[in-house]
Design goal:
Helices cover about 45% and strands about 25% of the residues. The protein is built from 11 helices and 12 strands. A hairpin with a 2-residue loop joins strand 9 and strand 10. Helix 5 runs antiparallel to helix 6 and helix 5 packs across helix 11.
C-alpha cells in the first residue's frame, strides 16, 4: 500500500499549505475569502469557519488597512501581480508585525477570477534593518563629531602657531624695549587662549569619547574677545577693524571648544576673503528674540554669489573664490558644530559688498 493511500489530493494540499510559515489565501473577484491556511488564520485570529466563504477582505482587515491595500487589490484584479510591504497591527492590539505581501492574479480564459495571496512575516528582518540603520546613524554622528574635532584641533592650533611664530620674529627684530614689551603682551594673550583651547579640547575627549557633547554656561562676548585676541597679529597685519558689540551680560549654553571654533572660523574667513580695495571691517552683535539667541557676524569683504552658490555654501569641499589655500571644509564643519549645539545658520551676501551670517541658538 502506498504511504499516501487514503489521503486525497486535497488533503495533501491542505497538509502542505498548513505546514509552511508563510500566509496563503485565495480571494475571489468579489473579495470573498475562498481559502486560508493555518498561518493566515493565526495571523488574523480567525477560525476557518469564520473565514472561508464568509468574510470579505474589507471585513477582515478593517476600512483603514483595506484603503491602503486597495491599489494593490485593484492591480491584481486587472491581472497584474503585486508586491508590497505592510505594517500590520495584530487583532490583539498590542503587537505590530511587518509583512511582505504578494498578490498573484488567477486568470482563466483571459478572465481574472480572483487572486492568490502570499504573505511573509519579515518582522525580524525589519527589526534588524532598523537596528542597522540606528547603528549607522550613530556611526555617522560620531564620525561627524570626530571630523569636527579634527577641524578644531588643526584650525585653532594652526592659528595659535602662526601668530606665535610671527610674534617671536617681531620680538627678535624689535628696535626698542617698548616694542618687546608689547610683543610679550601679545605672547601672554596667545598663551592664555592656547591654554583655554587645550582645556576645551580635553573636555571633549573626556566626554565619553565624543559620544556626547558637554554644554556649559558661557559668556558670548568673552568668547568673541578671546578669538579676537588669538587673531591679533592677523588683524593688525591686514588692518582689520573688529567691533564686538555683543552685550557683556549675554550668556548661552554651549560647548566651549565648539563655540570657540565657530567664532574663529567666521573671523578668519572674513579676514581671508577681505575686499582688496578697503580695510576689512567685521561687526559682531547678538540679540535675544523669544527663545533664540541670534549672533550676527557681518563683514565688508568680497561677498558670495548666492544665486550661484547658495545650495553648495555649506557643502564639504566646496570653494567659491578660487583661493589656492581654500579647502572647502570650514563652513561645512561650522554648520555641523552649530547644529550639534542645536542651532542653525542663515546667510545674506552680495558680491563686492560683503556677507552677513546669522547664527540662531536655542536658549
Amino acid at each position: 500500500m502506498s504511504s499516501n493511500e487514503g489521503i486525497g489530493k486535497q488533503s495533501i494540499a491542505d497538509l502542505v499549505t498548513n505546514q509552511v510559515s508563510a500566509m496563503l489565501a485565495y480571494w475571489d473577484k468579489d473579495l470573498t475569502c475562498r481559502f486560508a491556511n493555518d498561518a493566515y488564520l493565526y495571523w488574523f485570529g480567525k477560525t476557518r469557519e469564520e473565514m472561508v466563504d464568509k468574510i470579505t477582505m474589507k471585513e477582515l482587515v478593517g476600512a483603514t488597512l483595506f484603503k491602503k491595500n486597495l491599489p494593490y487589490i485593484s492591480g491584481a484584479l486587472k491581472g497584474e501581480a503585486q508586491t508590497f510591504e505592510r505594517e500590520i497591527l495584530l487583532p490583539s492590539g498590542n503587537e505590530t508585525r511587518y509583512s511582505l505581501a504578494n498578490y498573484f492574479p488567477n486568470i482563466i480564459n483571459g478572465e481574472v477570477k480572483g487572486f492568490f495571496v502570499h504573505v511573509a512575516d519579515i518582522t525580524s528582518l525589519k527589526l534588524l534593518e532598523k537596528g542597522l540603520t540606528e547603528s549607522n546613524e550613530t556611526i555617522r554622528e560620531q564620525n561627524k563629531r570626530l571630523l569636527s574635532f579634527a577641524n578644531i584641533v588643526t584650525h585653532n592650533l594652526k592659528s595659535y602657531a602662526n601668530n606665535l611664530g610671527i610674534i617671536l620674529e617681531m620680538f627678535i627684530n624689535a628696535a626698542s624695549d617698548g616694542e618687546k614689551s608689547e610683543m610679550l603682551g601679545f605672547l601672554k594673550d596667545i598663551s592664555t587662549g592656547f591654554s583655554s583651547t587645550i582645556s576645551h579640547l580635553s573636555d571633549i575627549v573626556e566626554t565619553q569619547n565624543l559620544s556626547t557633547i558637554h554644554l556649559e554656561t558661557v559668556n558670548l562676548r568673552e568668547f568673541i574677545q578671546l578669538a579676537i585676541d588669538t587673531l591679533r597679529i592677523e588683524v593688525k597685519a591686514n588692518g582689520t577693524i573688529i567691533h564686538n558689540y555683543v552685550s557683556r551680560d549675554i550668556t548661552m549654553m554651549a560647548n566651549p571648544a565648539y563655540l570657540d571654533s565657530i567664532i574663529l572660523n567666521f573671523l578668519t574667513n572674513s579676514i581671508k576673503y577681505r575686499h582688496p580695495d578697503r580695510s576689512p571691517v567685521i561687526d559682531l552683535n547678538a540679540t535675544i528674540t523669544g527663545q533664540e539667541l541670534i549672533l550676527t557676524i557681518q563683514d565688508n569683504g568680497i561677498g558670495i554669489d548666492l544665486t550661484k552658490h547658495k545650495n553648495d555654501l555649506f557643502g564639504m569641499y566646496k570653494t567659491f573664490h578660487g583661493n589656492a589655500d581654500a579647502k572647502g571644509i570650514g563652513l561645512f564643519l561650522v554648520r555641523s558644530q552649530v547644529e550639534t549645539l542645536g542651532g542653525r545658520i542663515y546667510v545674506e551676501s552680495e558680491v563686492g559688498k560683503g556677507t552677513t551670517f546669522k547664527i540662531h541658538f536655542a536658549i
